[in-house]
Amino acid sequence: MLTENILGYQVRRDGFESCLGEITRFLEQGQDQKWLATLNPHSYAVALHRPGFRSALNAADWLIPDGVGVVFASRIMGGTIRQRVSGPDMFYGLHDFMQRSGNYSVFFLGASEDTLAEIRQRMSKDWPDIRIAGTCSPPFKPRFSDEDIEQMVQSVNAARADVLWVGLTAPKQEELINRILPRLNVRFAGAVGAIFDFYAGRVKRSHPAFRRLGLEWLPRLLRDPRRLWRRMFVSAPIFMWHVCLARLKPARRAGR
């Protein structure tokens, strides 16, 4: 098994290289559809009260440990996850693979028109052999209407891309992929959140030193505390409290 159970979710435990290799082999050989999502303490806490989000996370073919909290949780529970694997990691790694192959196309769904235009420009320089099949900036609203979703489906299908990147932030992006993927003419979809803004240069990603230390969240929190405080001071404690409770359950049963 390449996954381990983290509070009811089957999370990849084999690290970045192994997971990326499996995705690239799928793209080379597979005939069906698969998709990737990420699990971190905030997404876990949100999913506690959002059944559609919980179902989507459970449905993902690759659920990667995008958060140092998940790595800590694995250690506490006696697991073997030792490496955080983020959405941006998979984004860059898969693009490098597609560039070497020279035979793939991508579609970007999410963000503003200005951000998508910047992505197009940067892609032409960084990965010139990857064809950008299309982009779509959906309406900025809490929930999409059936008409919104139908328009997105038609846009993606008309482009006939191999890979679909969805950057709408959680839980909207995961719920959307889980709902519409069977209707799409794509091979692989990835829910990658803030990478659109990172790659376009709209939001500065934390320095690699912070990422290596598991502190990528700290500079982002300092830059945007109003948006991110809840993740660190509400969601993270809830997640770790549930991890501790889960760790104590076997000990309680053994003491009976």
Structure overview:
By secondary structure, this protein is of the alpha/beta class. The protein contains twelve helices and eight strands. α3 crosses α8 (172-180). The radius of gyration is 18 Å and the shape is globular.
Break the fold down into its secondary structure elements and pairings.
Blueprint (H helix, E strand, L loop, with lengths): L2 E4 L2 E4 L2 H15 L4 E6 L1 H7 L3 H9 L2 E4 L2 H9 L10 H15 L3 E6 L2 H14 L4 E6 L9 H14 L3 E5 L4 H9 L7 E4 L3 H6 L7 H5 L4 H7 L1 H30 L2
Parallel strand pairs: 3-4, 3-8, 5-6, 5-7, 7-8
Antiparallel strand pairs: 1-2
Helix pairs in contact: 1-5, 2-12, 3-8, 11-12
CATH topology: Rossmann fold
Percent helix:
40-55%
The CATH superfamily is identified as Response regulator
Can you tell me the residue ranges where pLDDT is under 50 for at least 5 consecutive residues?
252-256
Q: Summarize this, please?
A:
The chain is α/β, with parallel strands linked by helices. It has one domain: Response regulator (Rossmann fold, 3-Layer(aba) Sandwich). The chain contains twelve helices and eight strands.
